[in-house]
């Protein structure tokens, strides 16, 4: 199941790494699910987007559970009991207000108790020094570098507890590695030589994609492009450290926008949209080869969607990475590679991604010819239930379905609308959405389709 941590129910304004996350992992295991995929868990950027991370290495402190911090004696229990926002939506503003106050209290208690001498804290600081030092140079007013490190220590500890719990439930955590980082990230501030910037530190070209099914004017992401000559000179050390960090957090990782490892859309800085640009080459072959030599076999898979070429497919296959097949893309033509009959075994099949409307909402927008093809595949009865079953019955090795589709939710539960800068990343799972009856029905569906 694909479900971001912020989409979990519970107090604190957004989902976190505490009791609701462990409860979800338990329910996933009871349902027979063996993969829980999240979106990136880095500190979010503009618009609270996890794909514009303020650090390619750090964890988002707002994902910390106040309930778990209260159990550790680091914050008052009254703070952990506060309920913020409205059911079904995140409230980042309220969450930041509460959690920054709570983390300040937690740091003071930790500091006063001599926590900086804690062997576990010292081991964490040594192990993650390659990126932690950079993260600790960007301070809010009144903060110290040790306090910033402490927050990441807490994230590491809570994440480790969740991962251990999930493994005990038979569930593996799968992450997502964004291709680019924003200009405001600590990575650009600390390593400007790795990015295509002018003498004033501004991007000369920015990222995006040309016009596509999501947007007539393309998508303008505005991240700075990489200066690949410098990455080559350092033998791709920043990238290798980044992949290694993800594999310390997750059991497997999806490479977002994999085509960027072969070519990336370059738009002149200051452009109004992404229609006018050019494809620039990327040294993905060298990068992945260098990473494999240093890290060994890597449990990665490729989000090979968008303007995919034969060269992108060849790059993916040379490095043995499974690609993705999206069922929502299968019905535009009778011979689509996304039709289940055309799925390779070495692949990850999905009904949709975080960028798609849930199946129930997507169905209402289908043109007549595509709908007829989908109905022919879904069979009699409810077409959404039928398409979920078709996805799970694919002979692709792995199937990952958004929670919205497994739970039969509509367009109101959509996570992201590409090309729209506001109103995204806010959906949360209602508290009672996974009762025992739903867990049993998911398990029965997985058994019927041979997934367990």
Provide a short characterization of the protein structure:
With 452 residues, the protein is an alpha/beta fold.
Overview of this protein structure:
The protein is of the alpha/beta class and 452 residues long. It has one domain (5-448): Glycosidases (TIM Barrel, Alpha-Beta Barrel), CATH 3.20.20.80. Helices cover 38% and strands 10% of the residues. It contains 17 helices and eleven strands. It has helices at 19-30, 66-71, 77-80, 92-112, 119-127, 129-135, 145-168, 186-190, 228-233, 237-249, 284-295, 310-318, 359-363, 368-378, 383-393, 403-406, 436-448, and strands spanning 35-37, 172-177, 205-209, 219-224, 252-255, 263-268, 278-281, 300-302, 323-326, 347-350, 398-399. The strands form three sheets. The chain has a four-stranded parallel sheet, with helices on one face. A four-stranded antiparallel sheet has the order 4-3-6-7, with no helix packed on it. Strands 9-10-11 form a three-stranded parallel sheet, with no helix packed on it. Helix 10 packs across helix 11 (284-295) and helix 14 packs across helix 15. The protein starts with 18 loop residues before the first helix and ends with a helix.
Average pLDDT metric: 96
| Low-confidence spans | none
Strand order of the largest sheet: 1-2-5-8
Radius of gyration: 22 Å
**What is the CATH first-level class name?**
Alpha Beta
Strand content: 5-15%
Helix segment tally: 17
> What is the fourth-level CATH superfamily?
Glycosidases
Q: H/E order of the elements?
A: HEHHHHHHEHEEHHEEEHEHEEHHHEHH
CATH architecture level-2 label: Alpha-Beta Barrel
Number of DSSP strand runs? 11
Question: Cα distance, first to last residue?
Answer: 14 Å
The fold-level CATH name is: TIM Barrel
Helix content class:
25-40%
Instruction: Work out the count of structural domains.
Output: 1
- Class by SSE composition: alpha/beta
- State the major sheet: 4 strands, parallel
- The outline comes out as globular
């Amino acid at each position: 199941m694909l479900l971001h941590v912020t989409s979990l129910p519970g107090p604190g304004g957004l989902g976190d790494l505490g009791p609701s996350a462990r409860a979800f992992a338990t329910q996933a295991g009871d349902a027979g699910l063996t993969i829980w995929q999240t979106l990136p868990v880095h500190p979010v950027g503009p618009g609270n987007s996890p794909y514009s991370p303020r650090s390619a290495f750090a964890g988002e402190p707002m994902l910390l559970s106040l309930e778990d911090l209260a159990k550790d004696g680091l914050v008052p229990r009254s703070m952990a009991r506060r309920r913020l926002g409205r059911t079904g939506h995140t409230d980042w503003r309220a969450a930041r207000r509460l959690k920054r106050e709570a983390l300040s209290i937690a740091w003071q208690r930790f500091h006063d108790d001599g926590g900086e001498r804690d062997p576990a804290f010292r081991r964490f600081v040594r192990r993650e020094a390659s990126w932690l030092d950079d993260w600790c140079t960007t301070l809010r007013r009144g903060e110290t570098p040790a306090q910033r490190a402490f927050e990441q220590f807490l994230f590491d500890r809570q994440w480790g507890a969740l991962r251990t719990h999930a493994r005990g439930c038979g569930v593996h955590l799968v992450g997502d590695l964004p291709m680019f980082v924003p200009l405001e990230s600590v990575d650009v501030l600390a390593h400007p030589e790795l990015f295509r910037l002018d003498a004033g530190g501004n991007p000369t070209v920015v990222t995006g994609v040309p016009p596509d099914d999501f947007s007539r004017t393309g998508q303008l992401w505005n991240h700075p492009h990489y200066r690949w000559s410098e990455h080559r000179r350092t033998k791709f050390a920043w990238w290798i450290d980044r992949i290694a960090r993800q594999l310390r957090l997750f059991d497997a990782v999806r490479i977002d926008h994999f085509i960027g490892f072969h070519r990336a859309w370059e738009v002149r800085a200051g452009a109004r949209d992404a229609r006018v640009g050019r494809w620039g080459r990327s040294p993905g072959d060298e990068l992945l080869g260098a990473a494999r030599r240093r890290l060994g076999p890597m449990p990665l898979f490729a989000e090979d969607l968008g303007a995919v070429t034969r060269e992108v497919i060849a790059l993916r296959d040379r490095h043995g990475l499974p690609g993705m097949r999206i069922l929502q893309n299968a019905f535009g033509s009778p011979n689509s590679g996304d039709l289940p009959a055309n799925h390779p075994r070495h692949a990850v099949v999905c009904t949709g991604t975080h960028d798609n409307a849930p199946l129930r909402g997507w169905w209402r927008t289908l043109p007549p010819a595509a709908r007829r093809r989908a109905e022919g595949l879904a069979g009699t009865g409810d077409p959404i239930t039928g398409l979920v079953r078709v996805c799970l019955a694919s002979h692709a090795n792995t199937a990952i379905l958004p929670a919205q589709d497994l739970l039969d939710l509509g367009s109101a539960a959509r996570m992201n609308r590409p090309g729209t800068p506001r109103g995204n990343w806010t959906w949360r799972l209602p508290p009672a959405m996974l009762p025992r009856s739903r867990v049993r029905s998911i398990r029965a569906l997985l058994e019927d389709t041979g997934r367990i």
